Amino acid sequence: MQFDDDARLDTSEVQDVRGSRIPGGRATVGGIAGLITLLLGLFLGVGPDRLGLAEGTGQPVATVSALAQVQQSCRTGQDANTKDDCRVVAVVNSVQDYWDQEFERRSGTYTSSPTVFFGQRVGTACGSASTAVGPFYCPGDRKVSLDLGFFDELRTTFGASGGAFAQAYVVAHEYGHHVQDLMGTLSRSQDGRTGADSNAVKAELQADCYAGVWAHHATTTKDGSPGGR
Ligand SMILES: [Zn+2]
Predict the structure, then answer these.
(1) Is 49 exposed, middle or buried (0-12, 13-18, 19+ CB in 10 A)?
(2) What whole-number distance in Å separates Cα of residue 67 and Cα of residue 117?
(3) Cα of 51 to ligand 1 centre, how many Å?
(4) Distance from Cα 123 to the centre of ligand 1, integer Å
């Protein structure tokens, strides 16, 4: 997975509340093996996100001292090709650009949703969440929250070797929930029922599908630029 070196990144779609610097990861070419591993993980119930966080209403512990970090270090596609955090910025740009166009084509209006980079703990409208929760989407404030340390966990705990593409897929899945939120299907999935044929499981599968739709679109874009910005 490679971005156009000269592409401009739009860091306004990311809010960086990490308290300390997380070194950028290695830039690897995505592979289908990692994706399959990730998908297996999701189906086996060890997937990254949990909807409707119930526990805790504590205050966010993450500070805003690193607020401008991403804004300063993530400017171009070249940055996205070399640093984990900048790559996520590029993916967020690309995913939202895709859905923006797709909504417009169907005479709808896409509302942008920021991704929050946090370290250790973050406060959201869905409650306080720690790194252990994994990436998640909160419909209460329409934000995707992500601790980039989760990507290390993907590699070490879940054995994902898909690198950049596995990471992008995780982000695109969360934006799939945002799309569901805008379309009104997400709230219908939170009816408290569980089990293999519950709406909650269907929502997870549909979010995976939406991620795949974006991936198909992104990989068939000639210039590979993030969001054409
Ligand atoms: Zn999900």
Answers:
(1) buried
(2) 10
(3) 7
(4) 19
